[in-house]
Amino acid sequence: MVENQLSGLVINRAIKVHTAPGPGLLESSYKECLYYELQQSGLYVEKEKPLPLIYESVKLECGYRVDLLVENKLIVEVKSVEAVNNVHVAQVITCLKLSGCKLGLLINFNVEQLKQGLRRIANGL
């Protein structure tokens, strides 16, 4: 499955997750629910996947973690915040660069309708 197909499936599952409780839960709750939904879809999903930083040919474990990595192709960053800001976008861009993935989704569940909280971020697509 290519990145665009994966992102469509993830967005559909995120909408399902958001519809049940609505906004107001902790980020960790939405992440667990989305993780469950994606696994139930038969996708390979890793949660809190560590990402090392390679600096001058040295692998450094700096504490970077991807919320969800889907099929080793799509990064999903889950938020439950008042508003997404530039640092959240920069976080996804950094994870894309470190992982070699081409597409990331930044999903803020703390919105009335989930489409207001969706952001696709591409790296070389």
Describe what you observe in this structure.
With 125 residues, the protein is of the alpha+beta class. It has one domain. Helix content is 36%, strand content 33%. It is built from three helices and five strands, in the order H-H-E-E-E-H-E-E. It has a five-stranded mixed β-sheet with strand order 1-2-3-4-5, sandwiched between helices. Helix 1 crosses helix 2. The longest helix has 17 residues, at 3-19. The two termini are 15 Å apart. The mean pLDDT is 92.
Note the topology:
Layout lengths: L2 H17 L7 H14 L4 E11 L2 E13 L3 E6 L6 H14 L3 E6 L9 E5 L3
List keywords for this structure.
125 residues, alpha+beta, 3 helices, 36% helix, 33% strand
**Helix-strand category:** alpha+beta
Mean pLDDT: 92
Side-by-side strand order of the widest sheet? 1-2-3-4-5
The separation of the N and C termini measures 15 Å
| SSE succession | HHEEEHEE
Helix content: 25-40%
Percentage of residues in DSSP E strands: 25-35%
Largest sheet: 5 strands, mixed
Number of domains: 1
- Our count of helices gives 3
Q: Could you say which overall geometry the principal axes of the C-alpha atoms support?
A: globular
Runs in which pLDDT lies below 50 for 5 or more consecutive residues are: none
Q: What is the radius of gyration?
A: 14 Å
How many distinct beta strands? 5
Q: In brief, what are we looking at here?
A:
This protein is an alpha+beta fold. The chain has helices spanning 3-19, 27-40, 86-99, and strands at residues 45-55, 58-70, 74-79, 103-108, 118-122.
